[in-house]
Amino acid sequence: GTLNMAAGEGAGSYRSRFRDIAICAPIAASGYLLGYLAVLPYPAVVVVMTVLAFLAGIVNSYGKALSLGTMQALMLAAIAIGLPQMGPFWQPALLYLAGALFYALVLALEAAMDFQRPERAIQADEVAALAKLALARADEATAGQANPQVRLARREAIGRSQYLHPAIVDANDRTFAAIMAETDPAALRTAAAWLGVMAKSVRRRAAAPPVSLDPTGKLAHGLAQLAGTIGAGDIAAKAEPGSLLDKESGRAWFSVERPVLLAAASLALCIGTAFAMKGVVAGVHWYWIPMTVALVMKPDLGSVFARAVLRCLGTSVGVVIGAAVMILLPKSTVLVLVVVLFAALLPWAKSVSYAAQAVVFTPLVLILVDLIAPTTHNIDYGEARLVATLVGAAIALILGYFIWPRRHGDLLASEFGAVMSATADYLVGACSPGDASTQLVAARGSAYARLAKLRATLARLLAEPPPAGREASEWIPFVDAAEELCTRIGAHAAVRDGDGRQPTAAEVAVVADRLRGISASTSPATTADIQVSDAFLAEVAADAAQIAVRFNAIALKTATR
Hints:
By secondary structure, the chain is mainly α. The chain has helices at 2-8, 14-33, 42-59, 64-82, 90-113, 118-143, 148-157, 166-181, 185-204, 218-231, 258-276, 288-296, 304-328, 333-352, 354-372, 380-402, 409-430, 437-462, 468-474, 476-495, 505-516, 525-528, 535-559. It is globular.
């Protein structure tokens, strides 16, 4: 229980980590209770596990903690079904919860001694990224031409604030928009210098430096709001508690989309096949096969193909290391010290790559098994784990990857349509009269969250072999164009004058509707023929027309493949 909580711990505030443990641990521990399925004929056990895996695949889409909990539950169910002698199964379930509780207590000690707090480090990184963006914008304004560094800095400056309070997120976003709207190089360089000092002040818990800009300017106002919001109290105290489900804007909590159903069906097929291998693979360690499948088939951790390959490589190296340790060292407290060493290396290995994590995780598990096993040495566990890993990875690759359609045009088009819909909402919020900051912050956060999700999907597909990787690369310009559009909208929101100088609601609605309809359009003219009198809306309409032309071209290309 302690090991799984450590391996599954993510970034973010301590509050979010404790929440994840509270959600994940009970779900995971319930996997041991599936050992009671032993009263059924084994074919029925395979059917039940297949159905449960399908349900787990659906639950995975509702949040990181739920996804981690279901993955661990499938792993522990494999152990319980593979080792019926460990019953009564309520005992290992309680022991698992005890291990998770112990980890939570140690995490609480860390939180009590950590005066910097993760939230403060996140905000310091956010401010430093804004400083880099301001400097890149200053160089761009000085040169009078587009600076490619602005795009890189802009991407680094958005999407970092998910663990912060909405007031801080709003201040960060307003500063971001003000930087993108500013055209004075001197003001941008002054802002960059101030933000650099501010980042250090946040990290050191020091007072915010004074803003040495014209107080009437939008950029100075944004910086002052940022300083006031951060300095109004402890950043950690403003951290959002979060919710059970990672609900996305515009999506019902309990809706099930087609890609989710396909992923659930793939997971169910692989888990069912893995459990059916009990009668095919010789040896008492067959249950490592469904354990491997559960780990590899976790889609929110990246490409299934890449994870299967990296897990095989990492496990192979880890088995060699674990076997060498068990050959050279006696079963004594010395092995406990080795466990401490590998456990200390685990967070570092996670930050390097999935293969590095497997290299450290595998000998750690082998040594733990060796410590609790009744015999003197159990080196054969290493060989059995390697064979099971190879079989499990083969199942995941063949039944979870290769037999399914590997053209992802529909998925990418659907996600891009969601980006355009969120961008349309952002446009409406940016053009709304009066003080609509709450709605604007929500719309802005939703637009950038959708962009981040699309980028994550592209990154996962780029790691897969053709045609998935090739198709994903064709969609990169769409994400860049959508980011440019969001930046244009944010710049308008930063410089708008309250109730004045706003486009009419009718014109805003026309452009917003055309943005929402891009993914469903059949002709570029449906977006290109927009006629509006407002200059800002005309620029947005022109951007939308270019995106529509590209979208129709790639849709036609996908249809003729």
